[in-house]
Amino acid sequence: MDASYILPFIASTKTVFSTMLQLQVSCDKPVPQAVIPTKGRDVSGIIGMSGDVLGSIVLSFSMEPAKQIVAKFVGADVPPDSEDFGDAVGELLNMICGGAKAKFEGKSVSISCPSVVVGEKHKVQQMSDALCITIPCRSDCGEFVVEVSIKEAMSSTATGPRAAASTSS
User: Fold this and answer.
1) Is the pLDDT score of 37 beyond 60?
2) Within 10 Å of residue 138's Cβ, how many Cβ atoms?
3) What is the pTM of this model?
């Protein structure tokens, strides 16, 4: 996977957390997903990407950092079983992905509505035909990861995202 697809997610994560949560985030070197075990994954936001780039982005936390980050984002403690909790995680991921895709110069990319999974030690299965890169992140609220699993859409004789989407049907 081209680094030009990873760097926008690092920059956007730092910007969103700094702007929306007043939290500084440091990111370690991105690594293939297999290097980082998924233990402690209790909350995951998932967004799909389509168009010139296909795949998904996952924002995952263990429960305590998730609760602290959501509380900072909404300005109050929100129980994890509340719809508002999932909405907050989904909106943070939506902002991260929106900021990152804006940096994909010359690419037409759409993002889906986020889905959020809350459940102890779950696993999010990424596309099997795309490398998944994990970006380990730290903040004063705890650690979390951003997983980027995207690839270039298949090209066809026609051009544009519609042509690429129609060849994959």
Assistant:
1) no
2) 14
3) 0.86
